[in-house]
Amino acid sequence: MLPYTLIEKKQAGKALSREEIAFLVNGFLQKEIPDYQMAAFLMAVFFKGMDADEIGAYIDVILNSGKRVKFPDTGTYYADKHSTGGVGDKISLILAPLAMASGRVKVPMISGRGLGHSGGTLDKLESIPGFRTDMSLKAFQKQTDEIGCALIGQTEDLCPADKVLYALRDVTATVRSVPLICGSILSKKIAEGVNGLVLDIKTGNGAFISDYDASVHLADQLRHFGEAYGLSVRPVITDMNQPLGNMIGNWLEVRESLDVLKGEGPESVREISLVLTSQMLSLADPKRSQDEIRAELEQLLDRGDAYRAFLKIAGTQGADIRFLEEPERYPSSAHRIEVRSPREGTISAIDTYQLGLDAIALGAGRKMITDKIDPKAGLELHRHIGERIERGEPLVTLYTDNKPAADLLAERLGDRFSFADTPTPKPPYIHEIR
Ligand code: URA
């Protein structure tokens, strides 16, 4: 087999066999197939798609590039949540300790880094000094069982093929593809050995799949293939027509998550965290009512139990938790620049995708595989859709060490917002639980 002819075959829209997909994915993992050929193949999939057999094979090959966790069958319910990706999406940082604090499920979570214009849980966690996200399969399993949760990335043991494909897709504009998203998300979630999976399917202009019907299709595909591996899958379609919460950027998002974990923080982040965690607990115990579950979870946030669970996870994974207990200890960006509103009115739309790219330009993400992230960098939004602003009031604050990038952006940031003279309704947080 030759990578060249397989790229041509996919370019022509033909279906690849399981052996051909395995040849490409494993060859890339073994560094026998170079980045440029794999990138060409991913781009061909991006344009031509994959049929159901190919998607099934693609998931399976990535999954089998590593090992699978097998938890003992002792009646414990293992569950996880995964998002299809968005801007300011910090829900995993809240949901995982919240679910752990409930004591009703255990959460072995494999997450990814920033992808395209979106942020990634791993980069957020690693902005906490000392937090280690690489762990052996054995240690991952042990920590999950001992404290109720472990937060890691793809490793040499677990989905190594997703690790390399993910990094390549991040910088080659090949994320917005249903088969590639299915392979990436499901391989990780099946490898974790969970019983139940909540999927946060983002829809809107900051999501990878922005169109509503296409988001529903993605949700249904993920459920279909997840169920084929015996997972109970609950997709929830949530809005991504504006950044989630006020903060975009790794440490900024950790700080905002800490607020939510202590019963404070933006309503949007709290609400989506509560709904997704409730869905997870309802998968574990379908007989409990949503009202009962929600009341329990609200208490865990408001009493600080979820916050303490996060400290426990972070401490166990090597973090210096003094930075979480006293976030003001964290170094500040060299530049903090306030961008003021160019006009008065109600915010009627936000270019969420572009704000994600803006955060990357400030240092919060990678433009190339080898780029280093500035964990402090990012943006703070002072208004969301449906909120009124007067001309000259603060609209966005930029945090960065890169002054030239900030100066360039400061001139353009006002353009990311549309203004109306009449009231605009706030978009819903949740569209649909499928
Ligand atoms: N999250 C992932 O893990 N993979 C994708 O492709 C998109 C979101």
Overview of this structure, please?
- By secondary structure, this protein is α/β, with parallel strands linked by helices.
- The chain folds into three domains: 3-49, Transferase, Pyrimidine Nucleoside Phosphorylase, Chain C (Transferase, Pyrimidine Nucleoside Phosphorylase, Chain A, domain 3, Up-down Bundle), CATH 1.20.970.10; 79-325, Pyrimidine Nucleoside Phosphorylase, Chain A, domain 2 (3-Layer(aba) Sandwich); 332-420, Pyrimidine nucleoside phosphorylase-like, C-terminal domain (Aldehyde Oxidoreductase, domain 3, Alpha-Beta Complex).
- Helix content is 46%, strand content 15%.
- The chain has 17 helices and 13 strands.
- It has helices at 3-11, 18-29, 35-48, 52-63, 91-102, 121-126, 137-147, 160-171, 178-191, 212-228, 250-261, 267-284, 290-302, 305-316, 322-325, 352-364, 403-412; strands at 79-83, 107-111, 149-153, 196-203, 232-239, 247-248, 335-340, 345-350, 378-381, 388-389, 394-400, 417-420, 430-433.
- It has a four-stranded mixed β-sheet, with helices on both faces.
- The longest helix has 18 residues, at 267-284.
- The relative contact order is 0.14.
- The mean pLDDT is 96.
